[in-house]
Amino acid sequence: MGVGRTPRRLGGRAGAGVLGGTLGGALGLAAAAQAAEGAPGLHAHNAVGVAVLIGLTVFATILSLLHLRERGRWARREHTLTAELAELRGAHDRAELLLGSEPQVVVTWDSRGEPRIEGDVGITAEGSRPGSARRVLAFGAWLVPADAAALDDAVESLRGRGERFRRTVHTLQGRTIEAQGQAVGGQALLRLRELTGERQELVALRATLEEARHGLGALAGLLDAIPQPVWRRGRDGRLAWANAAYVAAAEAGDVARAVREGAELLERAAREEAERRRARGAAGPLRVSAVVAGERRTLDVTEVATEAGTVGIAVDVSELERLRADLQRQMDANVRTLDQLPTAVAMFDARQQLIFHNAAYRQLWDLDPAFLEGRPLDGEILDTLRNARKLPEQADFRTWKAGVLAAYRAAEAQETWWHLPDGRTLRVLADPNPQGGLTYLFEDVSERVHLESRYNVLMQVQSETLDTLREPVAVFGTDGRLKFANRAFAQVWRITPEMLEVQPHIDQVIAVCRTLSPAEEPWTLIREAVTGLVDARHGLACRLALKDGTMLDCAAEPLPDGATLLTHIDVTASVNVERALTEKNEALERTTRLRDEFVHHVSYELRSPLTNIIGFTELLGDETVGALNPRQREYADHIMRSSAALLVIINDILDLASIDAGSMELTRERVDVQTTIAAAVRGIGDRLAEADIALVLDVPVDIGSFVADGKRIRQILFNLLSNAVGFSAPGQQVRVCSRKDGGSLVLEVIDQGRGMPPEVMARVFERFESNTLGTRHRGVGLGLSIVRSFVELHGGRIDIASAPGAGTRVTCTFPVGDGEAHLAAAE
Asked: Any stretches that span the bilayer, and where are they (predicted)?
């Protein structure tokens, strides 16, 4: 058809050229004629007519020639077109024959976008509803929704961008349709063809092949991603493929090089052993040692024979072997540890066979070791123990045994208590193992049960005992809550039983108690003692005053378990007595102070007149103012002696007052012991003679001297000799002894008088304490008190030993070294 059109266009152009040439010639003749019109001559008009005639003749001739030529060409063209039409009709018939040879529909879209549908539209039929041309492009009406949507998108891409496609879709009736789209000659063509027979099988095989290709690609990617070396060998045993892990382990660089060079991961001996195992049909992996990436590793190699050769995989179990060895060592250590436990342990597998038991288990049930080593069943062991009467007595042993063995099917551990015939109590824990089986733990809790029973009894006794106490007692726990309170505590603070049941916090208890004892400080201290967070807990003692006048001594003591014991003691009576005694003591102190002030004042007031009396008596005795008769001289002597005795008493009182006031100071000097004793003896000589008392001096010649106040030492000896003479009977003797004992000087005055009973000795050094003991000796009771005060001022001590009828020994001990130091300091 295209060939026919081209000659027609060329013929047209040639005719136009000839016609143009003819017209050009005629026009030239006309022009010549017009030019001739301007020339002179008579026949100008004739010449023009001739020229026109000639031109028309030439034009007609040429036009006839052209007509004849074109007619021949059109005849040939018609013949050619007739042949082409016949050929096209044959092609059309063949196309329709081909199109109708199988169920298919062809849809074409021209440039105007209108679809032309040709073929068997019956493929769109749905049940009783026949197919139609309008349903062909309504894919959702006869295709499954997913395929209809995908086909719509594919047709849209074909018509818009000319993208070709081929896909398989399915009708609602389950038939398979092949959809193929492509652009042909500027038109879009869609062919829908129902697949049947071999073609459908071919499409299914193609889909299977594509799926297998994708699966193989995914499998190859997966094998390259796993860390285990994987390989494939041909029938000749040569390496045909390997994954990335194999290449890295064999250090081959890449897969192509590994296959080309035949890089081997396993040694020859390992490969031969694997070949022999395959020949024998042995199952399971082969454990070998190989060099992997330059390191010696342990591998589990599995090779499987295929039609094309063998495939293999190597799993690195070096870490597993190490962990298995560590696990075995740990299990051995656990076994040794379990053997040392006092708790009996027995393990049974999923078949209820004994797989482990420790020494405590054998000792607990006293079973034959050979019997246990034979791995008996759990039920057999229970039967053996029942026959030996070692299990708890049961009315229905079969049911009880089934209940015990039911622990193998339990999901959680079960705890039971067995009371054995021999009086023991066992806590039995049956713990299911994750991999099947059971682990028994037998704990002998007989002692614990006994101790718990005793503990409960003791706690009950303690609670009852505390409840019977009259003193309030309360115990607060580590959380600050009231764990126990006896009846006295609840009665004193008026706490209700309902409040005690909820175990109130210390703050709630304080809130109730402060209504009776509003003082804030004691309760703050009690709260800190109960709830305070300190490293070292200490006890607390305070006093609580109630509004009704009751006084309670409160004590908070920390207990070993972290609790706090709070006790109260009613001290109202003792506080009242203490208050009365304090007031009385203050009154006595005031009385004593007044007495001392009175004595001190009176002593000084008496000393001056007494001195005058003694002076005037001495004048009268010297008879300087006139002669005295014998009676007057006797009276004057009595006045002199009485005044001297009274002066000694007054001086003693002044000395005691000075000692009490702390104003007496010793005049330390070096005192000769013999001289001092002789002076004291001279002062008592007349009384010795008058009482017919013998004086014995036991003073070493080399006694030497010591540093002291000589006047006070003489006063000490004088008072001791006066007492000794006063309490001695005529004819007895008084002994004065002196000696040095180490760094001390000892002075002793010993008499043979009546002695003193213990109750008198207990008060002998008190002031104004005088006892005649049946003698004529009288005194104001200041002598021994003065002696003790002077001895203690010297840093010494005084001891007295006496018994009724055995006399009295008074021992005064003076330090010698300290005296020297005091003298050196004074100088």
From this structure: 45-68
Judgement on whether residues 796 and 676 belong to the same structural domain of the protein:
yes
Residues 6 or more apart whose CB falls under 8 angstroms from that of 635 comprise none
d(CA 671, CA 739): 15
**What CATH number corresponds to the domain at position 721?**
3.30.565.10
CATH number of the domain that 141 lies in? 3.30.450.310
Residue of 801, 784, 669 lying closest to 715 (CA atoms) = 784
The DSSP code for 392 is: P
Asked if 712 and 800 sit in the same domain, the reply is yes
User: What pLDDT score was predicted for residue 645?
Assistant: 65
Q: What is the pLDDT of residue 42?
A: 47
Please give the mean pLDDT across all residues of the chain: 79
> Are residues 313 and 399 located together in one domain of the fold?
no
Alpha-carbon distance of 293 to 246, in angstroms, equals 10
Q: Give the chain's domain count.
A: 5
DSSP sequence for 114-135:
-EEEEE-GGGG-BTTBPP-GGG
Same domain, 772 and 675: yes
Q: What is the pLDDT of residues 552-569, one digit of tens each?
A: 889 888 888 788 888 988
Quickly tell me which residue has 């059971």 as its tokens.
Answer: 438
Same domain? 713 vs 799: yes
Are 697 and 766 contained in the same domain?
A: yes
Task: Provide the β-strand partners of residue 296.
Answer: 291
Burial class (CB in 10 A: 0-12, 13-18, 19+), 812: buried
SS3 713: helix
173 and 248 part of one domain:
no
In a domain? residue 394: yes
Alpha helices in 388-531 (DSSP H): 397-405, 446-468, 487-493, 497-501, 506-513, 520-531
Residues 6+ away with beta carbon under 8 Å from 396: none
User: Does residue 491 sit in the same domain as residue 565?
Assistant: yes
In this model, does residue 290 exceed pLDDT 80? yes
From 450, 482, 511, the end of a domain falls on 450
What CATH number corresponds to the domain at position 421?
3.30.450.20
Beta bridge partners of 696: 735
Residue numbers of the domain that contains 427: 345-450
Taking a C-beta distance cutoff of 8 angstroms, is the pair 161, 183 a contact?
no
Q: What angle do CA 569, 575, 581 make, to 5 degrees?
A: 145
Q: Is 324 left (phi over 0), alpha (psi -120 to 50) or beta?
A: alpha
| Residue in this structure with the two tokens 């696990």, named with its chain if needed | 327
177-232 residue pLDDT tens: 888 898 887 788 888 887 765 566 676 677 788 887 887 778 777 888 888 888 88
CB atoms < 10 A from the CB of 303, how many? 19
Q: How far apart are CA 360 and CA 64, in angstroms?
A: 139
Q: What is the pLDDT of residues 321-365, one digit of tens each?
A: 888 888 778 877 777 777 777 888 888 998 899 988 888 888 888
